Sequence to fold (453 residues):
Amino acid sequence: MADRYLNFTGTAPGRFLTRRLGLPQPSALRRWSPEHPHLEGELLHLTAGESAHEAEVASILARTHLKPTSDPSSSPSTSPSSSPSSSRPAAVILDATGISDTPALSDVHAALHPVVRSVAENGRVVVLGAPVSPSDHHQAAAQQALEGFVRSLGKELGRGRTATLVRMRSAAAAESTLRFLLSPRSAYVSGQVIEVVGEAGPDAACDWDRPLSGRTALVTGAARGIGEAVAEVLARDGAQVVVLDVPSAQADLVRVADRLGGTALPLDITADDAGERIASALAPGGLDILVHNAGITRDRKLANMPADRWNPVMDVNLTSVLRTTDALLKSGTLNRGGSIVATASIAGIAGNVGQTNYAASKAGIIGLVRSLAPGALAEYGVTLNAVAPGFIETKMTAAVPLFIREAGRRMNSLAQGGLPVDVAETTAWLSAGASGGVSGQVVRVCGQSLLGS
Ligand code: NAD
Fold:
């Protein structure tokens, strides 16, 4: 369903009126398109404290499509009142990995305060942090402070601008994450903290325009909605896709598969032998990317919820995810270097009236990811992450009553709902071999929704 308010605020009278009334001012987000696949413009690279990663970060930034500079004063972009938006920095990277005590946090303020106002519409602020130390409470306090800082900045920026914190051990392992965040693909991801747990860099031969080439992907629940968008973006990025959905959705599923040059696998994911049937459909080459997207809702307050509305939600959203993940790892169907992305929800973080079943199932996904990720990586060489969508414009949310729908759309830092493609872009980044250092993460694709923040 079209977001008429967003369209209205995109017109001059709409902007005037909503500003006078103090109403939300969403900016049309700049997403990936074949004509505009990259963020373009200046990239301000700043450092707070001493960074051990400065040179390596600089060489990664030089490989993006942005024009890095480290001197805010050399650019007209820091004169906010006079500079045209085209000369404002499209992104600012602040390397705060060297901040190891709280007095050094003043460097964060000193670096960003003079430039933050000048960041272009739809621009990015990315703060690089270090892992929080369990043994040095001064370092831990200072690094944790960055989280509150970034989450607040995301709420202040407005005009389609986003803020993210990336905690990293090595710059090389963070390259794919930085490329994602510094691109239009991350338009609806803000206020997030992403930890790059690995240290190895990407393959030197990595094709950044088609980072999934040579990989085979299975997407569940792909006959429509977010799953269809995920299959489409994975195919765009070079993956060979196998799309799975219930047999009753076969006609739509075949249409999606044909359009993407992929294969349709009609199958109810809750079947006891779903893992084995997927394994035999994917033999002999196996699977590199497994996206658990299929999901259902059966909303009702707990007091009114019969077991036949509770059990199917648990089965589809959680138990089948555990069962097929276990089966595909143990059978060796998931190749080493592969990636699993499971779909949670902000309801699994914040809870929601009428969704005890759904929120429990989605919180369960987060538990699964956090518990299994280290073992999956060590034993099977497979990463495991979750995406947690917020309010996404789909058939599911079009059915939500008007006022609740409007609240879902506006109650986030970007003041609008996301699109299925936003979840798909995040899934594609987490699915790339080059993202092998990212595991155990729950990444919200919610425009920094106030729910669960
Ligand atoms: P949707 O209802 O449009 O699509 C879900 C798909 O899953 C359907 O094609 C359906 O047939 C399939 N499916 C259901 N049960 C299945 C089963 N047993 N076996 C195989 N396939 C099955 O939903 P959507 O909005 O695209 O949501 C996709 C995922 O994102 C779900 O996990 C959902 O919980 C999650 N999510 C969505 C939103 C949102 O705002 N739309 C928000 C948070 C999370």
